[in-house]
Write a structure and sequence with these properties.
The chain is built from nine helices and eight strands. The strands form two sheets. It has a six-stranded mixed beta sheet. A two-stranded antiparallel sheet has the order 2-3. It is 39% helix and 19% strand. It has 271 residues and is of the alpha/beta class. The chain starts with 9 loop residues before the first strand and ends in a 19-residue tail after the last helix.
């Protein structure tokens, strides 16, 4: 949809990669590992979302020039069939075509929104001017601190889990854009630095483990809020007391559901 492109247009972008060269290494007599040949990656899928319509304008699998030695399915979501011209159910393009599509968007002056875009662009071999990049890995980063994964940010900031089964570049691109929108909202409200500190504090308190459990929608959000409440009570030193109150309430009501005066909500489909 080239007609809808213009300078400054926001496009959410993510790429997935496969390995075309495995690492080769040897051990010295001292036990030290010496790398003889590094792992090398090639792009295996590119996804671009129009941030105005929130629709994918590009979602192509990419056939590398070299033989794939590892599809990295756990991280890429790509399986062998996806890149087989005789079997794939996807749009399959060449590495050159992928490069040209992204270069065209860059030359039109579009701004790319994503998470960890430096690596994506380097593997695609595309040099994008810094003023055309909005990278949430940098936006949600405090100097001298660790970089935060997309999944952790989506978990904490957006209240949902990602990539529990299959990694998806469209999902990743959309999540990065929503994180960018949230950062803008917090900056407008003057609370961004406070929120970023809360994210880091939460990560350090939980050893950067995710808080969303299996499920989706209202159930997943409720599970996340329960997790946060448990952390809050533990910080306040009242968790065991609160847990005993929950058990006492359940036993007194024969574990029947009901909202008591003050707060809470039903999560059983009732209105």
């Amino acid at each position: 949809n080239a007609g809808g492109l213009y300078e400054g247009k926001l496009l959410a972008f993510d790429a997935e990669f496969v390995s075309v060269q495995e690492e080769e290494s040897t051990l010295l007599e001292t036990g030290s590992k010496v790398i003889l040949r590094d792992t090398r990656h090639a792009v295996g899928r590119i996804s671009v979302i129009d941030c105005e319509t929130r629709e994918a304008i590009i979602d192509d699998h990419v056939l590398p020039r070299e033989r794939v030695v590892d599809y990295l399915t756990r991280f890429s979501g790509i399986v062998e069939e996806d890149l087989d011209p005789t079997k794939t159910a996807h749009s399959l393009i060449s590495t050159r075509s992928a490069y040209l599509k992204l270069r065209y968007l860059m030359e039109k002056g579009c701004i790319f929104v994503g998470h960890g875009l430096r690596q994506d662009f380097a593997t695609v071999n595309l040099v994008v001017p810094p003023n055309q990049v909005l990278d949430t890995v940098e936006i949600y980063h405090q100097p001298g601190m660790r970089y935060i994964s997309l999944r952790f940010l989506a978990n904490y900031v957006l209240g949902r889990d990602m990539q529990q089964d299959v990694h998806d570049s469209v999902e990743d691109a959309m999540a990065a854009f929503e994180l960018y929108e949230k950062a803008l909202q917090w900056k407008d409200q003057g609370v961004f630095n406070q929120k970023l500190q809360e994210i880091y504090s939460h990560g350090q308190n939980t050893d950067w483990k995710l808080g969303i459990v299996e499920g989706s929608g209202e159930d997943a959000m409720a599970a996340f809020e329960l997790y946060e409440k448990a952390i809050q009570w533990k910080d306040q030193g009242v968790f065991n007391q609160k847990l005993q109150e929950i058990y006492s309430h359940g036993q007194n009501t024969d574990w029947k559901l009901g909202i008591v005066e003050g707060s809470g909500r039903r999560c059983d489909g009732s209105l």
